[in-house]
Specification:
Length: 362
């Protein structure tokens, strides 16, 4: 199954919070060799270690794992002048404003797997969560045909959408899904490094607004849970009401979800649907795949971000407190936790790339 030879890959946005997690995901990766690190002109020309060290000498490395030695001394190049033709695939981890022009330029030559929202809402662009909607991947052929690109752009969703759809997809498939109300408690790392969230704003506090987040979750969930028909995705007809909050947690987004199902289902049936979901995908045994997409806990005090975010190296969504919801028709409610910078960003994007290589699409 391993591609021969290993693909040369570049990482654009290597110095940011998501970019740092990519270094961990791609360190000694069996299929991908990270040959180029790129960021803004602020970092270009420096070694990676110097680029993430501030003027006061503080090394701003935010992963729990140490900075991989293989990348510490690598030079950072300027994304604006980086030639994508020098690699086989590009991972991007930059804000959507900068991502748009960069990804368009790179995709003309090679596949681009993106963590940004720049292309997520375009009709010819699949937004892929492995195990949930990887069957949307062939839509990239339309993208290449219509845009005249040799490569393509495949974004992953917003990190809050990711945990939500991993938990909703099994319910949609088994029982049908009519409506969703979700309240998030989102980690600080989700806000990135620049500007990030100031400590004086978040200590002893909750911030009840994250710009554009609720709209992203609402649009992305319907698209991801939709079906590929011919060369278009038909979104699931699903009203989603999202309340997105920033809380004083480092990593791991926690979401309280109430869902109206297509038919009545007991909590035990819902737990079974969650537990057995996605085995066809995990059985592929891709290098970054977890052995289970969703873990269900019985302990009513779980999931908790500090304890549970690292489940299967942050690649499994953890669900707890499954119980009836008395307000919505056929209602069920639960809590889902997912690691925003691993499943929701770098390692999730790496798994998307692995799947596309496995399918012969990249
Ligand atoms: N953080 C998460 O949990 C998470 C999860 C899923 C998706 N995402 C998405 O991932 C992307 C990056 O987020 P982040 O949290 O990692 O942000 P971040 O910590 O602020 O990092 C931003 C990165 O983009 C680079 N950059 C900024 N302006 C640039 C430009 N004009 N050209 C090229 N590179 C530029 C920065 O390089 P310099 O250091 O040189 O400025 C840095 O490497 C965003 O689209 C975000 O929505 C983030």
């Amino acid at each position: 199954m391993s591609p021969n030879p290993r693909r040369r890959v570049a990482l654009v946005g290597a110095t940011g919070v998501a970019g740092q997690q990519f270094l961990v995901s791609l360190d000694r990766h069996p299929w991908f060799e990270l040959t180029t690190l790129a960021a803004s002109s602020r970092s270009a020309g420096k070694s990676y270690t110097d680029a993430i060290t501030d003027a006061g000498g503080h090394r701003q490395w935010f992963c729990e794992e140490p900075l991989p030695a293989a990348f510490a001394g690598m030079p950072v190049v300027d994304s604006d002048t980086f030639d994508a033709g020098s690699v086989d695939l590009v991972f991007t981890a930059v804000e959507s404003g900068a991502a748009r022009a960069l990804e368009e330029r790179f995709a003309a030559q090679v596949p681009v797997i993106s963590t940004s929202s720049a292309f997520r809402y375009e009709d010819d662009v699949p937004v892929i969560v492995p195990g949930v909607n990887h069957e949307h991947a062939p839509l990239i052929k339309r993208q290449q045909r219509e845009r005249g690109w040799k490569g393509f752009v495949v974004p992953i969703p917003n990190c809050t959408t990711t945990g939500l759809v991993v938990a909703l997809a099994p319910l949609a498939r088994r029982f049908g899904l009519r409506s969703v109300i979700m309240t998030s408690m989102q980690a600080l790392s989700g806000a990135g490094r620049s500007p990030g969230v100031h400590s004086m704003d978040i200590l002893d506090n909750i911030i009840p607004y994250i710009p554009k987040e609720e709209d992203k979750v609402q649009r992305e969930a319907s698209k991801i849970l939709g079906t590929l028909e011919g060369d278009r995705i038909v979104p699931l007809d699903l009203p989603v009401s999202a309340h997105c909050n920033r809380v004083n947690v480092r990593d791991g987004h926690t979401e309280c979800v109430s869902a109206g199902l297509g038919r009545a289902a007991s909590p035990a049936e819902v737990q079974d649907a969650l537990r057995s979901f996605g085995r066809d995908f995990t059985d592929l045994g891709l290098p970054s795949s977890p052995p289970e997409l969703c873990r269900v806990l019985e302990d009513p005090y779980r999931p908790q971000p500090r304890i549970d975010r690292g489940t299967n190296d942050g690649m499994t969504a953890v669900v707890g407190r499954v119980r009836p919801d008395p307000v919505l028709p056929n209602g069920v409610k639960f809590v889902v936790l997912s690691h925003n910078t691993k499943l929701g960003a770098a390692k999730g994007a790496t798994l998307v790339a692995e799947y596309l290589v496995h399918r012969g699409l990249a």
